[in-house]
Amino acid sequence: MSRTLALFPLSLVVFPGEKLNLHIFEPRYRQLVRDCLESDITFGIPPYLNEGVSELGTEMRLLGVDKHYDNGELDIRTKAVGVFRIREFHRQAPGKLYAAGTVEDIRDDPSQDLTIKDRITEYVQQLYTALGLRKLFVDLPPNYRIYDVAHNLGLSTDQEYQLLAATSEQERQEIVLEHLEHILPVIMETERLKDRARLNGHFKNLTPPNF
Question: What's the predicted TM-score (pTM) here?
Answer without folding.
Answer: 0.85
